[in-house]
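Data deposition worksheet. Section B asks for the primary sequence of the deposited chain exactly as it was used as input, without tags or linkers unless they were present during the calculation. Section C holds the resulting structure in token form. Section D is free text for depositor observations; keep each observation to a single sentence. Incomplete worksheets are returned to the depositor.
Section A, Depositor: J.P.
Section B:
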Amino acid sequence: MAFDGITIACMAHELQEKLTGGRISKIAQPEADELLLTVKSREGNFRLLLSASAGLPLVYLTGANKPGPMTAPNFCMLLRKHISGGRILSVTQPSLERILRFEIEHLDELGDLCRKYLVVEIMGKHSNIIFCSDTDQIIDSIKHVSAQMSSVREVLPGRAYFIPDTQEKADPLGITEENFTALIRKKAAKLSKALYTSLTGLSPVAAEEICAQASLDSDRAANSYEQAELIHLYRTFTRFLAPVRSGAYEPVIYYDGKTPVEFSCLPLTVYEHCRKETFSSVSGLLERYYAEKNTLTRIRQKSTDLRRIVQTALERNIKKYDLQAKQLKDTEKREKYRIYGELINTYGYGVEPGSKSFEALNYYTGEMVTIPLDPQIPVQENAKKYFDKYGKLKRTCEAVTKLLEETGSEVEHLRSVQTALDIALQEEDLVQIKEELMQSGYIRKRNPGSKRPKITSKPFHYISSDGYHMYVGKNNLQNEELTFQTARGNDWWFHAKGAPGSHVIVQTNGGELPDTTFEEAARLAAYYSSNRGADKVEIDYVEKKHVKKPNGSRPGFVVYYTNYSMMIDSDISGIRQA
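Section C:
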């Protein structure tokens, strides 16, 4: 779920419990649009991260410290002057807006008690941190917004602070049934969009969840629903937001395998098929979720060049394959020319010179055929001409068949590299993939004198429910090493049938594998393949001694002739990683 009003309500509830009564002991500004406050409260010491980043605005408690610049920015110095040592009286959220309001009590220059407000607005590229007086006059902000930048509201020292109501959304915590149904019914957009564009703080994910719980089609136009259906939607909506009113939040991250796909502070039935991990605090959830997301994003960014090289080569080889397949199809008529030549030699003695064609019995099929002739040359020369065509097409067929096999193998290899790039989780994994591309000639090799990076990437290591060690190759070089160097003859080998993917090796130590281990290894093979996410994936498995590598084949390419197969899903959430 986006950092929406529901998540911020959960965060406000958590900060109210932990920070109320606490004193601000340190204020740092590690980034131009970010604050880090250290608060000493009765619950302990906390670091509060406030980020107004346009790309990723966040608010959460963190254990990590971030050093600030040697010279503190002006906004940081202003906050230190006013609220350093100040006591947090409350943390509130107006309505279900994406806003947190910190009420802070402190002593002024004369030693008198006074109050200030630190307002954090989590609004995408419009996010800001605004410092206000007790009369809601802006003292300063981490981002200044002039009239030239926004016609809606200026955020400058001396201006009055207010929450702009540009979208005329209703308060979801106070809306009545009558107003709700009237508001939704006048929308021509699909139902889910009508919800999140009409009500403050709802994200598209929350709107989809409300529709799902009400068993209503979220893609159907809102104004096409009957009054009774909208009343049912309102009651479902009210039940969905009940935990927000009571503070009974359930922070959870939903995973597709190891990939975090969504987080929420309320249960989401639309992700019930995913593995979920619950958290005791929304801060812990956000820190974990964005750390994992950032890791995946960073790897995606670093693999961009490799992906472009592979995609370009793949497109080129697919075009080449299609052209070669067309050439091969054109050679299919070669046998017709051979038969024409034979029939001319057999029956052509009776054909009149200058004839343009003649009919003869095809003794292979027992049918009469009409054979075209060139009237400018003798009949027997026509036979030679047809035999020459046959010979040329036969040679073309042999050559193109070999080229087609090579190109098909290259396409298969490049698709396997694409799958390896999808599997990569660390920079070390990309180093090994780059090495493979250099060996294949897609990347220019380094100068002989240049230092070669050390390859430290290792296969994934899992432990089955029965205690057997299972290893998964991350790329073709690791697949090759696992299968032909690590695995022993009686170990079991698994791979997704007819799809690029990892080799999975299960070490048997000479024992008999239980059925549960077979199924878990098959799930790993399904998950680490291009068929990840499919309801059922066909997996081939065989003892390693039956797996062979053809001479001169690409890394990771193997053949086997006796194997077992099973259909399995790609859910590896219950498999323990070592």
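Section D:
The mean pLDDT is 90.
The chain has 13 helices and 21 strands.
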